[in-house]
Amino acid sequence: MTKARLVMLGKIGRPHGVHGEVRLFLFNPESESLAAGSTIVVHFERGDENIVLESVRYVDKGVLAQFKNVAGRDAVERYKNCDFSISYDQLPPAEEGEFYHIDLIGLDVLLSNDENDELQSFGVVDRFFDSGTNDVMVVRQLDGKELFVPMFDDTIEDIDVEHGRVVLAPLEGWAPVESDNKRDRKKGSES
What we know:
There is one protein chain. The chain is mostly beta strands. It has helices at about 75, 100-105, 180-190, and strands at about 5-15, 20-25, 40-45, 45-60, 60-65, 85, 110, 120-130, 135-140, 145-150, 155-160, 165-170. A hairpin with a 2-residue loop joins strand 3 (about 40-45) and strand 4.
């Protein structure tokens, strides 16, 4: 049996009320992926635990949920501050031309060249993180280094999930990199 692909959805907050509801903070506040009867995977240091949601209420700044077979405020206290995920299969289908970050992880990253129409192999999509102002794609380059790519129109020319590739705009336009000669001159002038 293959292990389900999990998508990190949010963090469990403090208990709400005395009947065992708990506040769930979603990383994407617009997500509506949770429903009564669905299963979340709670991540503890010692391992994961599957929890069925008894009830779900969408409220300002999150979701109020009650866990099946977990009754009372004290019983849900142990889940406080844990991250939780859902199975990829529980996500609603992406709209035409849209994708989930998990769909991009492992895709080949190609680099566009202004001088000709050729694309050069650059690396693979490793992961994503939220910088607070925008999403950032982390590319593991062929030399093993990481490049942080802000998810903007001027940094990414094309995302083609079907063909397994992401095409970056020329680096000179958005990620200026000093040449080795400039760095060598700086080092020489410092000595």
